[in-house]
Amino acid sequence: MATTTTAPQQRGRGGRERILAAAAQLFASQGINATGMEQVADRAPVSKRTLYAHFRTKNDLVLAHLESLASSGATLEGVLTREDIPPRERILRLFDQPAVDAAPVRGCPFIDAAAEFPDPESSVHSYAREQKIRMVRLVAALVTELGCREPAALAEQLVTLADGAASRAMVLDDADYGRYARAAAEVLLERALPGAG
Fold first, then answer.
1. Chain-centre distance of CA 72, in angstroms?
2. How far apart are CA 189 and CA 197, in angstroms?
3. Which of these, 117, 77, 118, lies nearest to 98 by C-alpha position?
4. Among 18, 24, 107, 193, which is least packed by CB within 10 angstroms?
5. How far is CA 182 from the centre of its chain?
6. Integer angstrom CA distances of residue 110 from 1, 2, 24, 51
7. DSSP 3-state percent helix, strand, coil across the chain (nearest 5)
8. Are 137 and 53 in contact (CB under 8 A)?
9. Angstrom distance (rounded) from CA 26 to CA 118
């Protein structure tokens, strides 16, 4: 398959960062399993020797990619730790797709990764599961801060809505699909607030 490159070829320092950036682009556009290590090396651009010096296996690269996404704040979960946004608004922003440079809508990268690595014991699936559990804990802490009744159950309901909306947004290629789930989340929050009937 022929590839065209519009950016100038850069080699030398920063190889690890270029590899992760190339992997992120390729994984988002064609999926993890459909992306070969040679493609990542070509896109980075780095030699295969450099690629394997940084990431011994493709699983190592996938895990580093997911860890990079988690620490970047650019995933659905990223908004939950933003101290500059009030707790209720952080929860409701779960239903906004993270800003991306180009279509199509990709949904949640952790759900995508778990789907591509369906064995629950695999390191990639396990990491994706950890991120989804972390998401529930963050939401539970926020709804507790709001004084909501039964925060654990409410947190599970809210993240189920958010993950479902992200998945449907990806399938339908509709970045604004979360508006439906956001409306449902507003009803759940309203009913769970102190003083609700």
1. 10
2. 12
3. 77
4. 193
5. 18
6. 28, 29, 13, 23
7. 65, 0, 35
8. no
9. 20
Q: Is 166 within 8 Å of 107 (Cβ atoms)?
A: yes
Residue type, 36: G
| Cα angle for residues 175, 177, 179 (degrees, 5° grid) | 115
Helix (H, G, I), strand (E, B) or coil at 83: coil
Residue that the structure tokens 């459909």 belong to: 34
Amino acid (one-letter) located at 175: A
- Helix axes of 58-72 and 15-30: crossing angle, nearest 10 degrees: 90
Token representation of residue 90: 């952080």
Give the tens place of pLDDT for each residue, 146-158: 999 899 999 999 9
Tell me how far apart the 2 most distant CA atoms of the chain are, in Å. Answer: 64
pLDDT in tens, 109-129: 999 999 999 999 999 999 999
CA 21 to chain CA centroid, Å, is 15
Between 177 and 143, name the one with better pLDDT: 143
| Distance from C-alpha of 64 to C-alpha of 51, rounded to nearest angstrom | 13
Tokens at residue 9, please?
């070829």
Instruction: Provide the residue type at 117 as one letter.
Output: F
Q: Distance between alpha carbon 183 and the CA centroid of its chain, in Å?
A: 22
The amino acid occupying position 192 is A
Identity of residue 95: F
